[in-house]
Known about the structure:
CATH topology of the domain at 153-248: Umud Fragment, subunit A
Order of helices and strands: HHHHHHEEHEHEEEEEEE
Shape: elongated
Number of helices: 8
CATH architecture of the domain at 153-248: Ribbon
Strand content: 15-25%
Helix content: 10-25%
CATH superfamily of the domain at 153-248: Umud Fragment, subunit A
Amino acid sequence: MIPRAGERLRQLRTQLGLTTREVADLSRRIAQAESNEEFAVSHARLIQIENDESTPSVYKLFTLSTIYAQPFTEVVALYVNLESISKYQFTLRLENTRLANFDPYLEERPVSFPVRFDPGFKLEKTNLIARMVEIWGEVPIGLLQHLNIRKQRYGFIGLKDYTMYPLLRPGSLVQIDDQQKAPAHGVYRSEFDRPIWFLELRSGYVCSWCEMRRDRIVSIPHPLSPCRTQEYAFPNEAEIVGRVTAVAARLVNVPEPPPAPPVGLPGQS
């Protein structure tokens, strides 16, 4: 049975052979060093915390994690499920395109990782990842961070962002290579070969085809998109985050885009 938060904190204290008054004395040292009484945990308050009669503030959690020599995230995780953060990042239906950060909260936590791929499957064919992997193993997240794997950034296409629709649907998750930052003119065999770029603007983000024109960068939407070409001063109004290298897209429950605004005929105001 998983112990209650207060019970677990009591276990950590007793394992170190500390009394509640000793913890209180140590906490006052931290509070004095930080010039903030919020870091102090009194004898009476610690008893309430250990009996689950009081929930400690972030300052007191900092103090207890320091005294008990425990990672701060481990102590916070006694009260909230930190793994839910990434889940809610996906389920909260935010409308604006943005960068998404998925930093692990605990490097020692293991993750499932493909150890060996089934040699019978061909990468050229569409397939389920789970069926391509022959053996899954558990690898600490901290180890993955030190492997020679190129770090990537990820972006989320807002639910009302139809800039690259239908090539990139609203709600898509895109992978960004932030080492590539040089849009250039070129001839492409199809729209799929033309590089897509993730731009950071003063008011948000945009994901689109791009062209450089002297000190200006032009954001070019998909021709079937209701959006129009936008031009920004570079790099004062827009900066290049990187090139989109992969996409995970929703195929259902995506609303149709609004109709494109009518384009005035010559001579019309």
